[in-house]
Amino acid sequence: MRKSTVLFLALIAVPSTVTACEGDCIVGITRAFIGNYSEPVEHVMMTVASQISHFVPGSPTPESAMEFLQPITNAYSSSSYDGMERAIFPNFFHGKCLDDNGVEPDGCPNPDCPLVCGTPGSLVHFYSKLRYIAFNQTRHLLKDLSTPGSDTYNQVERAVIRRENRKTRKRTTVNRSGFSTVALPTKRSEDEVKKKLKNVMRNVPTWIEQVCGGSGSGDTNDLPQCNWEREMKEYILTFP
Ligand SMILES: *[C@@H]1O[C@H](CO)[C@@H](O)[C@H](O)[C@H]1NC(C)=O
Ligand SMILES: *[C@@H]1O[C@H](CO)[C@@H](O)[C@H](O)[C@H]1NC(C)=O
Ligand SMILES: CC(=O)N[C@H]1CO[C@H](CO)[C@@H](O)[C@@H]1O
Prior knowledge:
It is a single chain. The protein is mainly α. Helices cover 59% and strands 2% of the residues. The chain has 10 helices and 2 strands; from the N terminus they run αααααααββααα. Strands 1-2 form a two-stranded antiparallel ribbon. A hairpin with a 5-residue loop joins strand 1 and strand 2. Helix 2 packs across helix 6. The longest helix is centred in the first third of the chain and has 32 residues. Bound molecules: 2-acetamido-2-deoxy-beta-D-glucopyranose (NAG) (3 copies). The site of one 2-acetamido-2-deoxy-beta-D-glucopyranose has 7 residues, from helix 2 and helix 10. One 2-acetamido-2-deoxy-beta-D-glucopyranose binds next to helix 6.
């Protein structure tokens, strides 16, 4: 082995004495927020499905109308992790806990560090910020996925229209001369369904706020159902 390689290996093998939220800590905390949000998110999707079931022909149950939302729920499942990890680390919590004089304040790195940095103690101290980041991220992702024109929205719209057309086509009437006529889907009924879907989907960001216990007015300081402060702080401090 060349001398430079040995030196390099020796350098990276030095055990780090810096405590920071890395590896398992990052993954664990990100997953914990995604996991805690799974119920509120499911609740919002169920509300959407229930509204869709009112105007889609054939009166599907809210549970079966969830099928229309699969493009959104699938995209949420596959992309929520990366966005959440980035929003928390490194977009907000990162770096060493040193003040302007290069001194590490009391409580740092743990258990309650008054500097924004990348340690469990800092996440605990700024828990209200952390909680807000997790909420904002979740709301943004849901909003993106349910915005008209997005891939996921378009897929949902196509599925709903398909159902509308299939049902309309089957509707037969007997006209005055005793002939059976078939009602074909009209452009108008399609437009009607599209409009209704849009009206439902625009509520998604408000609904997630309400499910979290907010008023739906955009004030996100107090979201008691998406707080989880005690369990989360306990969990965060299980990491060194
Ligand atoms: C909320 O989240 C979005 C998406 O990640 C981000 O662009 C935005 O800056 C965040 N807003 C705040 C106030 O943190
Ligand atoms: C009844 O339906 C038949 C078959 O579609 C059509 O040929 C006929 O013109 C219709 N009669 C009336 C009165 O609408
Ligand atoms: C309601 C809920 O899911 N709470 C969980 C949030 O995450 C922490 C850490 O994983 C759990 O301890 C809570 O049970």
